[in-house]
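Hey, quick one: can you model this chain's 3D structure?
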Amino acid sequence: MFTKEESRQLKQEFWTSFGKSFPRKWLLYNTKIKGFSFKFQFENKQAAVVLDLEDDLENRINYWEKLQSLQRILKDDFLPDAIFEEEHFLENGKEISRISVILDQKVSIHNKNTWREVMVFFNEKMDLFEAFFYEYEDFIKA
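Sure thing. Here's the predicted structure for all 142 residues.
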């Protein structure tokens, strides 16, 4: 087991290493849409690239319906393993909508032997997520 401090240091080391291995500016929160953000997630048992819709319910429904209408395109042309969750609950109990791509392998932020695999996964999947967003940005924002 790792202490909280050791775990924090490992996480910091991973993200620093990822930034050096794949140096680029990711879209993430800079979508210019309130509550519409891309995120990297890497914890003890899985890694994921996610698109979260966290705005008020009315806006969340509006954007969710647009993304659902693009679901076939996203899956056929960009991310065939994308998982659509209209209702997803965060650890704090907050309800959001989420589209995610999950690395199914046995990975852990505490196991440096899995880091490279996760970094490649993050780079490939986020690049595809961003390409999808840029291609359909005008429709999503309209």
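One thing worth noting: The first strand starts at residue 36 and ends at 42.
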